[in-house]
Every structure is written in C-alpha cells, then in structure tokens.
C-alpha cells in the first residue's frame, strides 16, 4: 500500500508542477539516471547496499519496488529539480 501511495503522490506532483512542454529538455538526464540505476541494480543484485522488504504482501519484492522508483518516482523528481534549477551563477551554488 505504501508503494501505491507514493506513486499516486508523485503522479499528482507531476500533474501540478512538472513543465510537460519542456520534457524533451529533461529527457537525456532522466534517461541517464534510469539507465545508471538499472545498471547498478543489475550489477550488484546480490550485493546491494540496502534491500526493500514489504511487510504487507510477499509479491512486493525489492525488484518490483526498485523498478517502480526507477520509472515513476525518479523521472518526476529529476524533472521537478531541473525545472526550478536557478539560472544565475550565484544562485546555483546555493541550490
């Protein structure tokens, strides 16, 4: 249930705050992060730094949770971050 709640909240964030007219500007960064995250999970499948474990249902395993975060949560967070990234040099340091 927690995973479903997180996905719904991030979809609401995406509808309200993401600038969908500029998704092509964000696409290379989103793609890079997804590929790197999936490569990390593939290469270190048996040696992860942490492991998700669901307490409600058995079929909700680490792989499913990680794929959900890779394809739903991570792109939305990246697009939100890049949308509000400051333009001035002084503000970039603070950001």
What does this protein structure show overall?
This protein is an all-alpha fold and 95 residues long. It has one domain. Helix content is 68%, strand content 0%. The longest helix has 22 residues. The chain is globular, with a radius of gyration of 16 Å.
Mean of residue pLDDT values? 87
Q: Can you give the helix content as a percent range?
A: 55-70%
The ordered string of helix (H) and strand (E) elements is: HHHH
Largest sheet: none
Distance between the termini: 33 Å
Determine the number of helices (DSSP H or I, runs of at least 4 residues). Answer: 4
Give the tally of β-strands: 0
Shape field: globular
Weakly predicted, low-confidence segments: none
Radius of gyration: 16 Å
Give the tally of structural domains. Answer: 1
How does the helix and strand content classify structurally? mainly alpha
Strand content: under 5%
């Amino acid at each position: 249930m927690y995973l479903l709640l997180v996905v719904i909240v991030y979809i609401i964030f995406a509808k309200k705050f993401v600038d969908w007219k500029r998704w092509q500007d964000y696409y290379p960064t989103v793609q890079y992060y997804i590929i790197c995250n999936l490569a990390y999970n593939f290469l270190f499948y048996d040696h992860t730094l942490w492991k998700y474990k669901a307490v409600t249902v058995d079929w909700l395993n680490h792989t499913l949770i990680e794929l959900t975060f890779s394809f739903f949560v991570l792109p939305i967070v990246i697009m939100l971050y890049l949308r509000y990234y400051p333009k001035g040099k002084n503000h970039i340091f603070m950001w």
